[in-house]
Design a protein that fits this description.
- This protein is α/β, with parallel strands linked by helices.
- It has two domains: 236 residues, Beta-carbonic Anhydrase, Chain A (3-Layer(aba) Sandwich), CATH 3.40.1050.10; 117 residues, Roll (Nuclear Transport Factor 2, Chain: A), CATH 3.10.450.50.
- It has 13 helices and nine strands.
- The strands form two sheets. It has a five-stranded mixed sheet, with helices on both faces. It has a four-stranded antiparallel sheet with strand order 6-7-8-9, covered by helices on one side.
- Strand 6 and strand 7 form a beta hairpin.
- The longest helix has 26 residues.
- 35% of the residues are buried.
- The structure holds zinc ion.
């Protein structure tokens, strides 16, 4: 990951060109330039560039730096040397370059609905820090985020959206656990979701957590206010602990509980013990897009289990991702066999802890 195709020379020449184009002339080399991976500026300087850019944007005094034909030619010939990696929502009211008043080759931006950090986003962030050497990662949420709001309200979503927004579930749950309701709940969940993406980035990427631990990368969170253009910088102290040894021991224990739960669920299903089988599903929060409500889904399951005859359900390769102490995702290979039908699929369950027991809130087909 830390080996890179650029020669020392190309990195240096690119940085000098990049630096000459920065707005703040006082920003020069931060630290020793003798290491191939040394960024051109420090994380704090990168953060200051973003803050200054937003101040200009708010004042109606944007300078639109680095948007000249010469900048296009420079970055094309010498490569990109952005100073920050940003994960932002795709919302069209969050124009990242504009709100920070930056131009071409300045910001390495990952845009995805709900500014979630799942595999593709994490890989892209690893590229931004490990290959492009940005000293700063920013997770940027925004007010009135549709993705977060949908998860908080439990709106029905179809297609691939459930798999996209499942990263937001732990954040929404934390906000609900605070007893918030209405607008206050949404506002808090948007903030929690920024922290969640930071946690996901650091807990699912050894590269990123290593760089952060070594002090080579700083990870910050912010919420962009679409009402007035302000960027609200979040307190890094408020972010949930991502990776301590106690957290990892707790995660192992939770993963064990989840594996047991998933096996017991399959057993209840295979033995066609309807009552026991249904108990594995959350009464409050289980959602399936195929049925208009839980009662309709339940009737379907009861009938299915009654009519199907003897079945066999075997699970192998059970994987667990502990999202936080109350939320987890389990993926496994499921072999199903009845008299008239059999299949082998990879399946996912989303589970949450309710009154000491793990309950299924989502189930893939
Ligand atoms: Zn959004």
């Amino acid at each position: 990951m830390f080996d890179h195709p650029l020669t020392r020379r190309s990195v240096l020449s690119g940085m000098v060109i990049g630096m000459s184009a920065l707005v703040l002339p006082k920003l020069l080399w931060a630290g020793d330039a003798g290491h191939g991976t040394a960024p051109a500026i420090s994380a704090d300087q990168a953060l200051q560039l973003l803050k200054d850019g937003n101040t200009r944007f708010l004042a109606g005094k944007s300078e639109h730096p680095n948007l000249t034909p010469q900048r296009i030619a420079d970055t094309s010939a010498n490569g990109q040397h952005p100073f920050v990696t940003i994960i932002s929502c795709s919302d069209s009211r969050v124009p990242v370059e504009h709100l920070f008043d930056r131009g071409i080759g300045d910001l390495f931006v990952i845009r995805v609905a709900g500014n979630v950090a799942d595999t593709d986003e994490i890989g892209t962030a690893e590229y931004g820090t490990g290959h492009l050497f940005t000293p700063l990662i920013l997770v940027l949420g925004h007010t009135k985020c549709g993705a977060v709001t949908a998860v908080v309200k439990g709106d029905k979503v179809g297609g691939s959206i459930p798999k996209l927004v499942d990263n937001i579930i732990p954040a929404a749950q934390r906000s609900k656990d605070k007893g918030l309701t209405g607008d206050a709940l949404i506002v808090d969940a948007i903030r929690e979701n920024v922290y969640q993406s930071i946690t996901d980035l650091l807990s699912h990427s050894e590269e990123l957590s290593h760089l952060e631990h070594e002090g080579k990368v700083k990870v910050v969170g912010a919420v962009y206010h679409i009402e007035d253009g302000t960027v609200e910088w979040l307190n890094p102290e408020s972010r949930p602990v991502a990776h301590s040894s106690t957290a990892s021991v707790a995660s192992d224990a939770i993963a064990g509980e989840i594996k047991q739960t998933v096996q017991a669920w399959a057993q209840a299903w295979a033995s066609r013990n309807v009552g026991k089988y249904l108990e594995f599903y959350s009464v409050e929060d289980f959602f399936t897009e195929k049925f208009s409500n839980r009662a309709a889904w339940e009737r379907n399951r009861v009938k299915m289990l009654k009519d199907v005859g003897a079945i066999r359900v075997a699970l192998t390769d059970i994987q667990v991702a502990v999202l936080d102490p109350r939320n987890a995702r389990s993926t496994f290979t499921q072999e199903y066999r009845s008299k008239n039908y059999q299949d082998k699929t990879r399946k996912t369950l989303i589970l949450q802890k309710e009154d000491g027991a793990w309950k299924i809130t989502r189930e893939s087909d």
